[in-house]
Amino acid sequence: MKPFTFKNRLHIEKHKGDTEDMRIQPISPMEGDLLTYPLQQHVGAPANPLVKKGDRVLLGEKIAEAMGRISANIHSGVSGTVMDIKPMLAPHGQFIESIIIESDGKMEEHPSVRGIEDTYHLTREHFLHIIKEAGLVGLGGAGFPTHIKLSPHDPDKIEYILVNGAECEPYHTHDHRVMLEKPGNIRESMELLLRLFPFARGIMAIETNKMESVMLYKKLFASNDRIEVIGLPPTYPQGSEKQLIETCIKQQVPMGGLPSDIGVIVLNVSTVAAIDAIIRRGRPITRRIMTLSGDAFANPGNYEAVLGMSYKDLVERAGGFKLRPYKIMSGGAMMGWALYNLDIPIIKTDSMILAFSEKIANIQPEQPCIRCAKCVEFCPMGLLPYEINTLALEDNLEGFKKLHGMACVECGSCSYICPSKRHLMQSILMGKTKIRRM
C-alpha cells in the first residue's frame, strides 16, 4: 500500500539525534522510596482502591480496580507498605486521590503474576479479560483502556489493525527504541491480534527518519502476507490517530466518530509490545519507558522506570542536570505541558521529560492576534483555532462546542505556527477540560 497524506501537515525539525541511539536503561526504586499511584491514569472513571493504610502489597498486585465500563486497573510496581491514600499532585497539575506505597526494596512478586504458554488457543474473551486485568491503556499518550478499544461492536467488520510507529513528536525516541529492542514482542502481539480479528490486515506505519526500524520490520514480516510495513515521510502530526488513518488507509474518521466506525483499530507500537509481555509473562502494567531529552540533562536517553516513581527520582538516577533548567516539560515539545514541580509521579500515559536551558527554551510573550489565519491553514482537523481560542477565554462553552472545539486533537500545530505566539492549544485544552467536567 502506498502512503497517501493528510491535509494541513507541518514539516518540523525532529531533534531526535541525542537519544535515538541510546538503549533503554532500567531504573528501579530503592528501599524507602515512596511511590504514588493516582487513581486516574487513564481516560474514563477513576479506579477504586482495594487496599488501605498499613497493608503490605507485592509487585504486580492489583491495588485499585476499574470502576464502570471505561476505566483501568492499577497495580503496584514494588513490594512494600501502603502509607496513605490521599489527594496528591499529578503530572497534569491536578490533585488526584492517590495510593502511596513505601518500597521495601525486595521487589517480591505477587503469585497472580503468571503468563500463558499456549496462546494459539486463546479465545477473544479470555484475551480481553487478561488485558483488562493487566490495566493496559494506550501508551501513545491518550490513555484509553485497551480492552475497550479491542472490543468493537462487530469484531468481524474490523478490516485493519494499524500499528502506530510514527513517533512524530519532536525529541521522542522511546517508541523507536521499543521497535529496535523488542521485535519479538511486537511480532507475537501482531500475530495474536490477527488471529483474534480474522478478517483484518495488519499495517505497521513507521516514519522514515527511523529507517533502521522500517528495514527491521520489513524483513521481520516479509513472509506474512497479512502484515504490511509502510515507511511514511516525516510530517506532523502524523502520529495522531485520525491523521495516520488518512495517510495509510486513505479514509477519514467522521467528525465525532471512532476509527472502529470505518473498520480500523489503531494501537501505539509500545501498547502492542506490552500485549505480548502481558500474555506470556503475566505481568501487568507497572513500568513506563521515558525519553529524557534537552540540553539541560547530563545523560539524555531512554529509561524504563517503575510507575509511581517521582520525576525527581528518575531525573536524579539518570544523572541529573548539567545546566540549570529554564523550562521543564512533560509529554513532548508540541503536545506536552510545562512543569513547576518534579515531585510528581510517573503514570501510565507519561512518555517524556524535556529540560531546556534559557537559550534553547526561547520563551516569547504572547502578542495580539493579527488575523493571519496561519492556525487555520495548518490545523489538521480543519478547525478555526483563533475563534475557538477566543470562545474558550470568554468561557463561551456553547459557542466552543458549536465550532467543534471538542474535535481538537491537541497537536499544538496552531501554537507552533502562530507568529504572535498565542497560546492557542492551551486555551482550547482548557475549554475542553471545562466541558468534560460539566
Compile the SSE list and pairings.
Layout: E1 24-27, E2 34-38, E3 48-49, E4 56-57, E5 62-65, E6 74-75, E7 80-89, E8 95-103, H1 124-133, H2 146-149, E9 160-165, H3 174-181, H4 183-196, E10 201-207, H5 211-220, E11 227-232, H6 241-249, E12 264-268, H7 269-281, E13 287-293, E14 301-306, H8 311-317, E15 327-330, E16 337-338, E17 352-356, H9 358-361, H10 374-377, H11 385-393, H12 397-402, H13 413-417, H14 424-437
Parallel strand pairs: 1-14, 9-10, 9-12, 10-11, 13-17
Antiparallel strand pairs: 2-8, 3-5, 4-7, 5-6, 7-8, 13-14, 15-16, 15-17
Structure commentary:
- With 438 residues, the chain is an alpha/beta fold.
- Among the domains are: 124-281, 3-Layer(aba) Sandwich (Rossmann fold); 374-437, no CATH class.
- Helix content is 27%, strand content 20%.
- The protein has 14 helices and 17 strands.
- The chain has helices at residues 124-133, 146-149, 174-181, 183-196, 211-220, 241-249, 269-281, 311-317, 358-361, 374-377, 385-393, 397-402, 413-417, 424-437; strands at residues 24-27, 34-38, 48-49, 56-57, 62-65, 74-75, 80-89, 95-103, 160-165, 201-207, 227-232, 264-268, 287-293, 301-306, 327-330, 337-338, 352-356.
- The strands form 4 sheets. A 6-stranded mixed β-sheet has the order 1-14-13-17-15-16.
- A hairpin with a 6-residue loop joins β15 and β16.
- The longest helix is centred in the middle third of the chain and has 14 residues, at 183-196.
- The radius of gyration is 21 Å and the shape is globular.
- The chain starts with 23 loop residues before the first strand and ends with a helix.
- The mean pLDDT is 94.
